[in-house]
């Protein structure tokens, strides 16, 4: 969403979305743009379950929320005001989804199978698993389903008699309009029976999935001083193409990006040669360890961590002679792009974010680049990436090796090259110790969180990868 004071990016709360769109935000900042982001999540089905990810983004990401803040942007509200309003709206929103069929990926068929007499409760917008699957055991299944959904929504929003709400009933794509309107009628009836007032109700196809039969009910509690303004915004004219009655969108032409401009301090020719050798050593180490990393990832992931890191290693070696080594800011920006393009997926977004945030430390002009500067770059990379990730120490991730290494390096007083090497050696040792501890941790993020911990006997592949490239860096510097 563009505003006169900058740009506001809405990110649906899914790990891949948070990392990849977070990367886009950070890239925009490196171009000098004023950008803020808000992670959207109003799903109330999974509240109270074990996990660190939080509430998923659902239909209101594209519906009520964007309509209100979009109109406020048209009125000239500042970026900070739009961020504050977005967060306030999120605290007043709750969504619950149900599905009768799974969504399909073109060419691959349905993602999973739901029986003809079954319904998935609390599923996500693209077929992500819900909290339970139930059979149709009553002719009043529609009434009972809406009761189940509204029970969770009312509890989440703490709705009471006399409250005013706006309701959005989103068709997930494969339900008929008749089914959608029957649900809408039941929602109206049950909320009125609960003595809740409905000033507005919307029934669009606002966020859909291919061949997925299902409905999402979203409720916005507008009770309070913002009621009149929010309703005015909802009733304002919009050209959003997916909103009922809106015109078709018109594709715009994108301008070619300008060439990069050197920013921040520069390195000497001697420092550039040393940096080039370090990058080459790290890349070769990642390629050399491809099988070991794949093996570590095979018991609790896709078994491709090594292959993924091998690709970025190969990309670095291929572009090594063309990298802007003299300007660390642009160097890390280029490395971030290589990681994103060559790795892909969550790992690519993680490393791309790490590299982009590391580079921003070198943005200041006329600064002295020494070992302490590189330490600040490592800290900036970690802090910036954790801002978009829900990972914490002990979650069995790469950060269980990376954070101890950073903290150990920072604990050393560094004023000479030898002291820098001593600090780096200690950091490598701390990373290895942190990595070793992951074999006794329960994974709380990603695919590994679904695997029985008893089946995972070895260290985390991502944490081990950190020890690989960190040790390769140290060995090159002492050679």
Automatic annotation (TrEMBL):
Task: List the EC numbers from the record.
Answer: 2.7.1.28, 2.7.1.29, 4.6.1.15
Any Pfam family: Dak1
Q: Which positions fall inside the DhaL domain? A: 273-475
Keyword NAD listed: no
On whether Lyase is a keyword of this UniProt record, the answer is no
Q: Which GO terms describe its biological process?
A: glycerol catabolic process
Q: What does this protein do?
A: Catalyzes both the phosphorylation of dihydroxyacetone and of glyceraldehyde, and the splitting of ribonucleoside diphosphate-X compounds among which FAD is the best substrate. Represses IFIH1-mediated cellular antiviral response.
Recorded protein name is Triokinase/FMN cyclase
Could you read off the lineage of the organism from its UniProt record?
Eukaryota, Metazoa, Ecdysozoa, Arthropoda, Hexapoda
């Amino acid at each position: 969403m563009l505003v006169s004071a900058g740009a506001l990016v809405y990110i649906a709360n899914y790990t891949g979305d948070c990392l990849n769109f977070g990367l886009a935000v950070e890239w925009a900042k490196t171009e000098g743009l004023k950008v803020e982001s808000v992670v959207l999540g109003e799903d109330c089905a999974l509240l109270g379950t074990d996990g660190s990810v939080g509430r998923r983004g659902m239909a209101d990401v594209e519906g009520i929320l964007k309509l209100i803040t979009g109109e406020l942007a048209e009125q000239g509200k500042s970026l900070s005001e739009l961020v504050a309003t977005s967060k306030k709206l999120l605290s007043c929103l709750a969504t619950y989804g149900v599905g009768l069929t799974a969504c399909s990926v073109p060419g691959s068929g349905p993602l999973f199978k739901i029986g003809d007499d079954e319904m998935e409760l609390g599923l996500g917008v693209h077929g992500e698993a819900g909290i339970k699957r139930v059979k149709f055991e009553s002719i009043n299944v529609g009434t009972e389903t809406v009761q189940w959904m509204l029970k969770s929504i009312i509890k989440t929003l703490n709705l009471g008699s006399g409250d005013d709400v706006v309701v959005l009933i989103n068709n997930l794509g494969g339900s008929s309009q008749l089914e959608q309107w029957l649900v809408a009628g039941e929602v109206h009836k049950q909320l009125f029976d609960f003595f809740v007032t409905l000033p507005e109700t919307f029934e669009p196809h606002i966020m859909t999935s291919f061949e997925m039969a299902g409905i999402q009910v979203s409720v916005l509690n507008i009770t309070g001083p913002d009621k009149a303004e929010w309703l005015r915004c909802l009733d304002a004219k919009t050209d959003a193409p997916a909103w009922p009655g809106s015109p078709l969108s018109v594709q715009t032409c994108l301008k070619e990006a300008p060439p990069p401009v050197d920013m921040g301090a520069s390195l000497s020719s001697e420092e550039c040669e040393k940096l080039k050798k370090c990058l080459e050593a790290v890349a070769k180490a990642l390629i050399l360890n491809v099988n070991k990393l794949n093996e570590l990832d095979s018991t609790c992931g896709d078994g491709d961590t090594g292959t993924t890191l091998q690709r970025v290693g190969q990309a670095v070696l291929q572009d090594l002679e063309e990298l802007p080594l003299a300007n660390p800011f642009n160097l890390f920006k280029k490395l971030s792009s290589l990681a994103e393009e060559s790795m892909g997926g969550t790992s690519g977004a993680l490393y791309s974010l790490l590299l982009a945030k590391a580079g921003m430390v070198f943005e200041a002009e006329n600064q002295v680049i020494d070992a302490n500067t590189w330490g600040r770059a490592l800290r900036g990379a970690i802090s910036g990436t954790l801002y978009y990730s829900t990972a914490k120490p002990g979650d069995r991730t790469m950060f269980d090796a990376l954070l101890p290494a950073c903290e150990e390096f920072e604990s050393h007083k560094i004023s000479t090259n030898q002291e820098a090497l001593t600090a780096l050696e200690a950091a490598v040792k701390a990373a290895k110790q942190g990595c070793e501890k992951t074999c006794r941790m329960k994974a709380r993020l990603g695919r590994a969180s679904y695997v029985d911990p008893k089946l995972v006997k070895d260290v985390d592949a991502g944490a081990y990868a950190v020890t690989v490239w960190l040790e390769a860096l140290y060995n090159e510097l002492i050679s």
